[in-house]
Amino acid sequence: xxxxxxxxxxxxxxxxxxxxxxxxxxxxxxxxxxxxxxxxxxxxxxxxxxxxxxxxxxxxxxxxxxxxxxxxxxxxxxxxxxxxxxxxxxxxxxxxxxxxxxxxxxxxxxxxxxxxxxxxxxxxxxxxxxxxxxxxxxxxxxxxxxxxxxxxxxxxxxxxxxxxxxxxxxxxxxxxxxxxxxxxxxxxxxxxxxxxxxxxxxxxxxxxxxxxxxxxxxxxxxxxxxx
Length: 227
What we know:
By secondary structure, the chain is mainly α. The protein is built from eight helices and four strands; from the N terminus they run ααααααβαββαβ. β2 and β3 (194-196) form a beta hairpin. α2 (36-47) crosses α3, α4 packs across α5 (110-124) and α5 packs across α6.
């Protein structure tokens, strides 16, 4: 009796790896207490930024199928035309990782990777793809190489304002200077904020203070998300 074993094609194996990546991320979020819908939406935003709703439904369906049958659904699409990916090339993987890890924190984006592949990595390796790499493909490469898109949360700003030299400067230089300036500024008193002009000496001019809020000044310096 002969037994024939059907091995998955390269395209199918590649697709299964993608599904396993998604299931692993979904399971991790669920273990952290994230709801099914929220977890699927977060993963969908990482893989397809502008197709979140449809992708999130497919992720939940994939998770239900695997939970019920304990194997991946049979993929009936694709073929030899989709089998090859330059990411399977070890040299491309190595050069891409080295490029990404050399970038400053927060500078990694799918667009940056796409531009680097087309302008630097592929030409240096002597690779000339028939079609230019899309930004969507670069996003998938980032995920497969271990990068994840996360929201940047606000932290606590520490500027050392209680350092000994800072306290000395504040008490001996800054505050005395501000007291002199305030004597030439208008004041506002009472609930109605009644205006009082300063008493100026001969040759003095009224000072109008222009204050700058550093929090507002730097409000949009940092991106809301990073890889």
